[in-house]
Model the fold of this input.
Amino acid sequence: MRVLLFTGKGGVGKTTIAAATAARAARSGRRTLIMSTDPAHSLADSFDVPITDQAMQLTANLWAEQIDAQQRLESNWREIQDYLVALMNWAGVEAIQAEELSVIPGLDEIFSLIDVKRHVDEENYDLLIVDCAPTAETLRLLSLPEVMNWYIERIFPVERRVVRAVRPLVTKITTLPIAGDQFFGAVERLHRNLEAVRRILTDEKVTSVRLVVNPEKMVIAEARRTYTYLSLFGYRVDAVMVNRIIPDSVTDPYFGKWKEIQKEHLATVHESFQPVPILTSRLFDREMVGLPLLEQMADEIYRASDPADILFRDNPIRVRKRGQNYVLVMRLPFTSRDDMDIHRRGDELYVRVGAYKRNLILPQTLQRLVVRGAEFVGEQLEIRFTREREPEPKESSARSASTRRRTSDG
Ligand SMILES: Nc1ncnc2c1ncn2[C@@H]1O[C@H](COP(=O)(O)OP(=O)(O)O)[C@@H](O)[C@H]1O
Ligand SMILES: [Mg+2]
Done:
């Protein structure tokens, strides 16, 4: 089964393009399910039919479902929440406030993603298309399985043993609520599910992320940050989709300036995301609602290609701490290594190796650091970052005897 995640800033056209992609895949004979984790239930608006929490068939090979996030929260978090609420009540927090505090923002959406695992397990479909919530939340929730696992793996094995040992004692001397086996059972189940979701979403053979943007400054800036973090967490973007491009056929001078602006932004998109493929969609003369229009849109976007294909094999970037320094590792296969130019400007990193260019937004940790040098280790380019400039001239540190390399910072 293939999984496609569509994400991007609110209003750029994620739901529409996800729906169009689903319609086209279904028409070509793939059993396709489109599901939305976005609480702003717009999938129904897009297809112009009511859509519920149960997968419902819209046409041949096409099913849709709108996740009920509240219900997913109830079934995954209730037992954990009960204990947290009891604990907070014991500490003097009012009941209603404790209820509110015990729900971590974004949790309901991450539980919606557990449905991805369910569908992959059940194998009822060839293709699963996920229309995600707006970017910031999606990103946080996509990284959550990793973060949660980290905590759970480190804290819970110890906790459970300790609790077993001290429970009889503690209940005698205090009223402090002690977590019961239900709580640990729920935590373990959640852990297993989230780990499975993470494995599916970061499996390069299964999942691709498609970033939807408009040719607008702020939208592109946010998409570039999203790309960096998706890449860092191991999610692979296989296409950037630029939506709402004013077509050439529009010659009204009123839109002349807009067309110029869009052209510039389109160039930025190419510079920022290459070598990831850029697919485009024009601004249509109406709202793209209902199957026929969605199919038309998908045909224009994908042309002869299969939307379910892996359109690009991206290699996630990694950041490692090495002593006091950080190393950003990116895989750059098939590049000539003799002529390298790397520099940081503000929060951006420019990398050029031979004819290969990369221009990305740095993760927060690296934004205030200085590029110290870079070298290839096998197919991996390792870029070293340090906290401060060393007194010697900055260029020398990155130059090696056999090759011309330049790194700078500013
Ligand atoms: N290329 C396009 N041309 C015309 N209308 C579009 C286009 N893309 C999206 N729309 C319309 O814009 C609105 C918002 O799109 P939507 O897909 O719901 O955005 P998002 O899911 O990113 O919030 C919808 O009414 C949709 O029909
Ligand atoms: Mg939407």
